[in-house]
Amino acid sequence: MSRRSAAASGRLSGDWAGPVRQLSLSLTTKRHQGAAFQLIQVARLSNRYQQRKMMNEAPTVASGRVRVGVVQLAMRPMSGPEAFFEHVSFFIEAMAGYGADFVCFPEYVNAPLMAPWKADGAPAAIRQLAGITAATRDFFSREAVAKGINVLTGSLPLVEDDLLYNVVYLCRRDGSVEEQRKIHATPSEESEWQMVGGDRLEVFDTDAGRVGILICYDVEFPELGRLLAAEGLQILFVPFCTDTASGFHRVRYCAQARAIENECYVVAAGSVGNLPGVANMDFQYARSAVFTPSDYDFPENAILTEAPAGLETALIADLDLGHLENLHRRGSVRNLRQRRTDFYRVERVARGE
């Protein structure tokens, strides 16, 4: 099987082991009938997933280099959870096949599954969807272990103590799972779904760096990024869902600002398409991207890679964590080191204060 036909069937064969040329392909798979999947690569690729399977080796991050995969998912009607699981499994396998250490999905990743409950109203529909969140989390975790890749699940609704939250799970490839809840519910989430914000913010250690998660609207609050930076953040993941170009640009510009001011990489994953059968999820607009600090070791526009609008797409980018260390110590400007903490500061507040 040729490399092109292997990709086109959605399978990864032994032919993919070893280096692959830099490319940009538009792929159509049998499992994704008529859906174009464009894979944009920004570096030479190697199939480390297949090599690890053959050699039974644990994944490692060599020389501080980390490969991230970003899925710009197309929202479309789905017949049920199994169809959703098959769809995202394709992307996880593909990203693992290209040797990615992480794959990140968008906010409200399984929103199409709310369609059967539209007649019940938006608040009831999303709570029904929350009923399969545990099973969805467990599916992603099994995929992370089986494919040898750390998975950012995209966000899912969670009901706890009768309160509705928006949560992203970090499913490590060693089988452990962490969660980050959205801190700020948007006005729409509050009014349409009666969603509330969480009250914990963490940096998570992984085998490929220290990572944080800010879900969509949260990236528009610079205090959160600064709190994470103070705890050694290296890669910030931003799953988002925006319905208009203006909403997208709010998220985009704030995400890029977080990368510059906090001297970290920012990986932003959004969704595209429309969901006519799902209340409060009419349209989605995105251009997923990987942002960098702005200095000599990085692209001059501080954008490592960026997806086109309106297309179901996957991005792959190599991040050099060593460049972050150089920036912290010898950057042209040093936003973290030169803060005037004698004049201002951002700090956590204990609950109840």
What does this structure look like?
The protein has 353 residues and is of the alpha/beta class. The protein has one domain (30-57, 67-329): Nitrilase/N-carbamoyl-D-aminoacid amidohydrolase, CATH 3.60.110. 28% of the residues lie in helices and 26% in strands. It has nine helices and 18 strands. The strands form three sheets. Strands 2, 3, 5, 6, 7, 8, 9, 14, 15 and 18 form a ten-stranded mixed β-sheet that branches. A six-stranded mixed β-sheet has the order 10-11-12-13-16-17, with helices on one face. A hairpin with a 7-residue loop joins strand 2 and strand 3 (36-41). Helix 3 (81-97) packs parallel to helix 5 (133-147). The chain starts with a helix and ends in a 23-residue tail after the last helix.
Write the topology of this structure.
Layout: H1 3-8, E1 19-20, E2 24-28, E3 36-41, E4 45-46, H2 48-55, E5 65-75, H3 81-97, E6 102-104, H4 122-130, H5 133-147, E7 150-160, E8 163-171, E9 177-181, H6 187-193, E10 204-206, E11 209-213, H7 222-229, E12 235-239, H8 245-262, E13 265-269, E14 271-274, E15 283-284, E16 289-291, E17 303-306, E18 313-320, H9 321-330
Helix pairs in contact: 3-5, 7-8
Short description:
It contains nine helices and 18 strands. It has a single domain, classed as Nitrilase/N-carbamoyl-D-aminoacid amidohydrolase. It is an alpha/beta fold and 353 residues long.
User: Average pLDDT across residues?
Assistant: 86
Based on Cα principal axes, name the global outline.
globular
The H-level CATH homologous superfamily, spelled out, is Carbon-nitrogen hydrolase
**Oligomeric status:** single chain
Alpha-carbon distance between the termini? 63 Å
Number of domains: 1
